[in-house]
Amino acid sequence: MYDGGQKTGTTGGDASGLNTIIAIPLMANEHSLHNDFCELPPGSISGYVHVDDDGDCIIDPEERRLADVEMKLYAANGTLVATTFTNSEGFYEFKDLAPGSYSVVQTQPGGLFDGVQKAGTTGGDASGINRIDAISLLANQHSLHNDFCESLGQHQWLRFSRWLHASCPPFRSLRICEASVTASELLMTSHWPA
To answer: For residue 188, which phi and psi values (nearest 5 degrees)?
Structure first.
């Protein structure tokens, strides 16, 4: 449980401290009722990491789940909260979390290209590379399916091809436009716009 504050009762007092109510006044034969302490149940953030064969970032039955992928959870101020690893089903989970805003950061699995990631059921910002930011949690809320979708490479070429066609002016040939992008740039950039 996490501290959710406290509330002074029927005779007043000072509830501004942490887990305390002080200066509760009492007259003779007076009863101070409802000096209440409010606790918040914890939440969780979870998701999957898998090889996304068709590029839709949806786990299909035949797609491979990735085990032993390192996942890190950060608070909104950048403090590392926890580190975990995916299990044999590609599943990871951070439990017992206080209400707040969090980021999940994945260590890129070896031998695969970064595909995309998808924010889960409580929202978030999945526009970065190997991270989902601004995952919001209320008390007793569970953010599911913050998923990371990896690629074997072929879909990166397809996405690059789409980007190339969209980016090249129509008066330039595709051959010339292709020549303006070096092989090293292709290898360094694994997160082309869709």
So the answer is: -75, -25
